[in-house]
Amino acid sequence: MSYQFPKKQVAAVVTGPNLRVLVRRDVPVTQPSELKPGQCLVKMICTGVCHMDLHISKRDWPLKVPMATALIGGHEGVGEVVAIADHTDASPVRLGQRVGIKWIAYCCRDC
């Protein structure tokens, strides 16, 4: 399988607490070369914004770290694995596999 990786994507972005959601067309796309061992890149097919996203955007969800960067909601969805990081041993997923993205119990807040 061969995939074309765009440099930018469209995303609904919350830029701070109690602010309107902005649709941005210039959000960088993580490239396969930027993945760390154990990570994969998923091309989202379908996603939605869950209520937790709304709580986080309003800052009424107990976060240990304040929202320092813009929030791109819609973490629950279905997509296809389009890249797996180099030096990943025994990946539980394979290229082309359809996967589900669950709610976020932990987030490194790097993207």
Quick summary of this structure?
With 111 residues, the chain is mainly beta. Helix content is 7%, strand content 35%.
Could you outline the blueprint of secondary structure elements for this entry?
Blueprint (H helix, E strand, L loop, with lengths): L7 E7 L6 E8 L11 E9 L2 H8 L12 E2 L3 E9 L13 E4 L10
Antiparallel strand pairs: 1-2, 1-4, 3-5, 5-6
The amount of beta strand, in percent, is 35-45%
Number of strands: 6
Shape: globular
The number of helical segments is 1
Q: Provide the spatial order of strands within the biggest beta sheet.
A: 2-1-4
Distance between the termini: 26 Å
- Overall structural class, as computed from helix and strand content, comes to mainly beta
Helix content: under 10%
Q: What Rg do the Cα atoms give?
A: 15 Å
Structure description:
The chain is mainly beta. The chain has a 3-stranded antiparallel beta sheet, with no helix packed on it. The chain has a 3-stranded antiparallel beta sheet with strand order 3-5-6, with no helix packed on it. The two termini are 26 Å apart. It has one helix spanning 51-58, and strands at residues 8-14, 21-28, 40-48, 71-72, 76-84, 98-101. The model has no long low-confidence stretch (mean pLDDT 82). The longest helix is centred in the middle third of the chain and has 8 residues, at 51-58. The relative contact order is 0.25.
